[in-house]
Structure formats: structure tokens, C-alpha cells
Design a protein that fits this description.
The protein is α/β, with parallel strands linked by helices and about 425 residues long. It folds into 2 domains: about 210 residues, Uncharacterised protein PF07075, DUF1343 (Rossmann fold, 3-Layer(aba) Sandwich); about 140 residues, Aspartate Aminotransferase, domain 1. The chain is about 35% helix and about 15% strand. α3 links the parallel β1 and β2. α5 crosses α6 and α8 crosses α9.
Length: about 425
């Protein structure tokens, strides 16, 4: 090959390499929020090095390159994994509601695994005996009824008894760090769907929740929080620069995380309606076979007009066919809720308005057969009676403000991140 040809070949090779590097992911870390797992392995490895390490996680716990925490840890020679735990929906985030992995062995790693929902809700003493520290890395969606926040509390409780340190690898609250709505869960209504004494949304990260649990519920758990870098309280998920990975079968996208409270607190609390379960749009819909969709769409549109926090919500009528869950195989009529911009969105306010509209417009069709379940989900024994009495939603919401102010004062002691 002569010199001219060699130079031409070198130029072509350089151009190809430049094009590939431009289109491929950058080797350097991308911009945006840095999750706790990256901080741990980059600068806080001493917390786990030389120790037997347990991990409670699922596939939504990823770094900025979409590598799971489990894969990061098992590939790192400085880390000795000895035990795995999974929350509701299992280690693959794919099992049915109310279920997790059966106790056994995780096939890729050969590690023992316990599921922490269903028959067991806390790590067993036998499993905790295999670890010196337990890493907790799950992606939350900001609601007290989403059971991962309960798994954190019950895990801390078990670790306190076993004298095992819990290290929370922190992640963003997709609803942001400033919003909290709803009645504070009363002592009578403590459950797996409302374990901590929080309102329906709490505006905390899991690291902050863990600090709250230790301080207010006196768990006495040895605790360390590996903080995120770059997250501020005003950020919702869209502001983080992170890619969403489904946290459970019903939360495939950030939109579903934003909408979970808005519709889940309606149909999920016991009324005979469907919130999109068994459909490709979970938590984006409200409907039932007995319902007049035009009437619901018109009444809801009128009710939310000009309401603070709902200016970017649009309503349209829709029919769908659930393939599982409530009304499986029956044509269901109702509305689709479009969230044009999630910034400033008030999901629980929308839930309260939707329930008010349903009680007003469909008094003979709407049924709540289990008042106890409704109270359990809402954490309060008064809301259902107020709705049945057609108390204006503004008055119901105003009744929570004193307890929310008290919660805000307590919550402030455990905040980590700036405004």
C-alpha cells in the first residue's frame, strides 16, 4: 500500500471512528442526577468492601447506563453478595399484585432469594444471618400505598432486631420532593398499604423515608443513606435526566407513576370501577360497563376547570376491553385522562374530584361494598362518609390541612436534599 493510499485509509478510519463515537453512548458518565448505586461504587465502597452483602432490589434499580444494581454489584470484585430479597412483584418486577418470589435460589447468581410480599413480608432471621449489611435499592413512585415503602420499613425493623446495618441507595421521588397531599394515615389504619404515618403522597426519597422511620417510629435500625448527586426537591422525574424502567407491571412509564395516585385512589380503594388495569394504559383510565362515558367526561371536565394543579389535565371519553382484573372481558366505558404537563400536577386532588363526580353523577351505579378497605387505602375513616354525603371536595381537602402542617414540621427534620 503506497503512502497516499495509507493516508486515505487512515482518514476514512478516523471518520468512521468519529461517527461511531458520536452515535454510541459516551464513555464518560452522562449528565443529570447520579443514583446512589453509582455514588456507592465510585466513592463509598468502604461501606461494603470486606463485608457479606445482601441486596433488596428489582430491575428498575439501574445506573445511568441502564445497568442494574444487581449486575453492577455481582460484577464488582470488591463486593461479596451473599443474599437477595425482592419486593412485591418479585426480582423481575413481573409477578402478580400481592405476590413476590418464593424462597429459593436466584438462577443467574446462585444466591438465595426471599420474596418480601405474600407469605413473608420481612427478611427472615436465617437470611439476615448470611449478611453483614443489607443494601436497599428500589425505585419508588411517591405514594404511601405503593408497597415498596412498606418493604423498606419492615426490612429496617427486621434488621434492627438482627443488628444488621441497612444502606439505602437513594433515588428520586418521581413526584418531586415538595408535594404531599391527603389525610395522614391514622394508627387504626396501619397496614401493608399504609405502614408509615404519612399522607397519601409524602414528597420524600427512600433515604429520607428511612430517616423518618428511624426517628419517628423508633426502629433503632443501624442506617446509612448513600445520597444521590444532583437531585433537588423541585425536580419531578422529567427533570432528572434518568431513563424510566418499569417499577412493576402497572407502572411501565413515568406517566403511570404520575397517574397512580390520581386513579388508583379511586378504583383501587374499592369502588366498582376500573382504572385501566388489564389494559395497556394502567392508571390513565376510569370506567365501568354501567357508566355513561359522555356524562362522566363532561362532568369531570367541568369540575376540574380552573382548579389549581389540574390546568394541564384533559379528559376524553373512551371504551376499552380489560383482559384481566375488574370487568375482565367486558366492554368498559369511561374516560382517558391526558396529562399534558406533569409539573405542578396534584394527583390526589384529581382523585378526590373524580370520586366526588362519581358519587354525584352515578349514585345508583357506583358501589363501595367494603368501607373498611376504602378507609385502609385512604388511611382515614371519614372520607367515604363525606363523599356519600356530597361534601364539596374543597371542604374535604381543607379538613386535612392541620394534620398536613403538623406532618410538614416533622418531615422537615429528615430532609436531605436542597430546594
Amino acid at each position: 500500500m503506497n503512502l497516499t493510499v495509507r493516508r486515505a485509509a487512515a482518514l476514512v478510519a478516523a471518520a468512521v471512528a468519529a461517527a461511531l463515537s458520536a452515535s454510541a453512548p459516551a464513555a464518560a458518565s452522562p449528565a443529570g442526577v447520579v443514583p446512589g448505586i453509582e455514588v456507592l461504587l465510585d466513592s463509598k465502597i468502604a461501606l461494603v468492601q470486606g463485608k457479606r452483602v445482601g441486596l433488596l432490589t428489582n430491575p428498575a434499580a439501574v445506573d445511568r447506563h441502564l445497568v442494574t444494581t444487581l449486575d453492577r454489584l455481582r460484577a464488582d470484585p470488591r463486593v461479596k453478595l451473599t443474599q437477595l430479597w425482592a419486593p412485591e412483584h418479585g426480582l423481575a418486577a413481573a409477578t402478580l399484585n400481592g405476590t413476590s418470589n418464593a424462597a429459593g435460589v436466584e438462577p443467574r447468581t446462585g444466591l438465595p432469594i426471599e420474596g418480601l410480599f405474600g407469605q413473608r413480608t420481612s427478611p427472615s432471621p436465617e437470611a439476615l444471618a448470611r449478611v453483614d449489611v443489607l443494601l436497599f435499592d428500589l425505585q419508588d413512585i411517591g405514594s404511601r400505598t405503593y408497597t415498596y415503602v412498606t418493604s423498606l420499613g419492615k426490612t429496617m425493623q427486621a434488621c434492627a432486631a438482627a443488628k444488621v446495618k441497612v444502606i439505602v441507595l437513594d433515588r428520586p421521588n418521581p413526584l418531586g420532593g415538595n408535594l404531599f397531599e391527603g389525610p395522614v394515615r391514622t394508627a387504626r389504619r396501619k397496614s401493608l398499604l399504609g405502614w408509615g404515618p404519612f399522607p397519601v403522597t409524602h414528597g420524600l426519597t427512600f433515604g429520607e423515608v428511612a430517616r423518618f422511620y428511624n426517628g419517628e417510629m423508633k426502629l433503632g435500625c443501624p442506617l446509612e443513606v448513600v445520597e444521590m448527586q444532583g437531585w433537588r426537591r423541585g425536580m419531578i422525574w422529567d427533570d432528572t435526566g434518568l431513563v424510566w424502567v418499569p417499577t412493576s407491571p402497572g407502572i411501565p412509564k413515568p406517566l403511570n407513576a404520575y397517574m397512580y395516585v390520581a386513579t388508583g385512589m379511586v378504583c383501587g380503594s374499592g369502588p366498582n370501577c376500573n382504572e385501566g388495569g388489564g389494559n395497556a394504559m394502567p392508571f390513565e383510565l376510569i370506567g365501568a360497563p354501567w357508566l355513561d362515558p359522555d356524562r362522566l367526561a363532561d362532568a369531570t371536565t367541568k369540575a376540574i376547570a380552573g382548579v389549581d394543579g389540574l390546568q394541564q389535565v384533559r379528559i376524553r371519553r373512551m371504551s376499552w376491553l380489560p383482559w384481566h382484573g375488574q370487568y375482565r372481558g367486558k366492554i368498559t366505558h369511561g374516560i382517558q385522562i391526558h396529562l399534558i404537563d406533569p409539573h405542578g400536577f396534584r394527583p390526589l386532588r384529581l382523585a378526590l374530584i373524580l370520586l366526588s363526580v362519581l358519587h354525584k353523577e352515578f349514585p345508583s351505579g357506583l358501589k363501595v361494598d367494603n368501607a373498611g378497605r376504602f378507609a385502609l387505602i385512604w388511611g382515614n375513616d371519614d372520607v367515604l362518609g363525606q363523599l356519600r354525603a356530597h361534601t364539596p371536595w374543597q371542604q374535604i381537602e381543607a379538613g386535612w390541612q392541620a394534620e398536613l402542617q403538623a406532618f410538614a414540621a416533622v418531615r422537615a427534620k429528615y430532609l436531605i436534599y436542597p430546594p
